[in-house]
Amino acid sequence: ILNVEQSPQSLHVQEGDSTNFTCSFPSSNFYALHWYRWETAKSPEALFVMTLNGDEKKKGRISATLNTKEGYSYLYIKGSQPEDSATYLCASPGAKSSGDKLTFGTGTRLAVRP
Amino acid sequence: DAGVTQSPTHLIKTRGQQVTLRCSPKSGHDTVSWYQQALGQGPQFIFQYYEEEERQRGNFPDRFSGHQFPNYSSELNVNALLLGDSALYLCASSSWDLSISYEQYFGPGTRLTVT
Predict the structure, then answer these.
(1) Residue A44: what are its φ and ψ, rounded to 5°?
(2) What is the pLDDT of residues A62-83, one digit of tens each?
(3) pLDDT tens-digit readout, A84-101
(4) DSSP class of A83
(5) Is the distance from CB of A103 to CB of A92 less than 8 angstroms?
(6) Average pLDDT over chain A, rounded to an integer
(7) Percent of chain B clearing pLDDT 70 (strictly above)
(8) Strands A10-14 and A108-113, sheet pairing
(9) Is A14 exposed, middle or buried (0-12, 13-18, 19+ CB in 10 A)?
(10) B90 interfacial to chain A (CB closer than 8 Å)
């Protein structure tokens, strides 16, 4: 059974603060790591799909890194804004044979105070 | 370009009843996956449909079944509803050919409440 874990469970920061979250996954049979941003009452929005060890991806103020050898990914938000308030989910299929069968972590809930 | 759509948005059913949830995938996608998100948990994979067949299945009982239509839209059926089936049901669409894209696009979900 693939186990994907995220920390912290929740985070409260002040507008302008930079923050980061962690996603841990088994390093064996790694295939891909997905990051999603999920605002309340909306669809989860795909942020990044990462596949290669050492991958770094960036989208505006949000960036992510991937370490497949040790089994973790970090998501960074630079200069948090209130509109960044959302739940951030990571997910992995575990192996190529699993295809689209994603196993999700429980998410990190971010609240940014103006 | 319409994204993934789901209907209905909310649904209230009584224990023992049956329910059908619907999903239309993003244009160009041919694969639909269904997930259940219970309170405080991440989404849990139920099953996946491609070419009108169930291709993968998660750890869910046979009360959960599905269907995919020739236009790639999909239904999720749950029979003999239990209180524990109350959850947000998410549909995700993707391309079966992962050499094209790994990305999965999610709908907004259907909130099912079983009383």
Answers:
(1) -60, 135
(2) 999 999 999 999 999 999 999 9
(3) 999 999 999 877 665 678
(4) G
(5) yes
(6) 92
(7) 96
(8) parallel
(9) exposed
(10) yes
Interval B42-90: pLDDT, tens: 999 999 999 999 998 999 999 999 999 999 999 999 999 999 999 999 9
A40: distance to nearest CA of chain B, Å? Answer: 10
B48 to chain A nearest CA, in Å? Answer: 8
Query: How many Cα atoms occupy the beta-carbon half-sphere of B45 within 13 Å?
Result: 27
Residues in B touching A91 (Cβ below 8 Å): 42-43
Whether the predicted pLDDT of B1 surpasses 70: no
Would the CB atoms of B44 and A104 count as touching at under 8 Å? yes
Given an 8 Å threshold on Cβ–Cβ distance, is B42 in contact with A89? yes
Q: Which two tokens stand for residue A59?
A: 């989208």
Inspect the interface and report whether the beta carbons of A44 and B106 lie closer than 8 Å.
yes
Sign of CA dihedral A39, B94, B107, B15: negative
Cβ-Cβ contacts under 8 Å for A13 (sequence gap 6 or more): A19, A80, A110, A111, A112, A113
pLDDT in the model for residue B24: 97
In this predicted structure, the answer to whether residue B97 has a pLDDT above a threshold of 80 is no
Closest residue in chain B to residue A46, using alpha carbons only: B105
Burial of residue A20 (number of CB atoms within 10 Å: 0-12, 13-18, 19+) = middle
State the residue for tokens 């989860």: A44
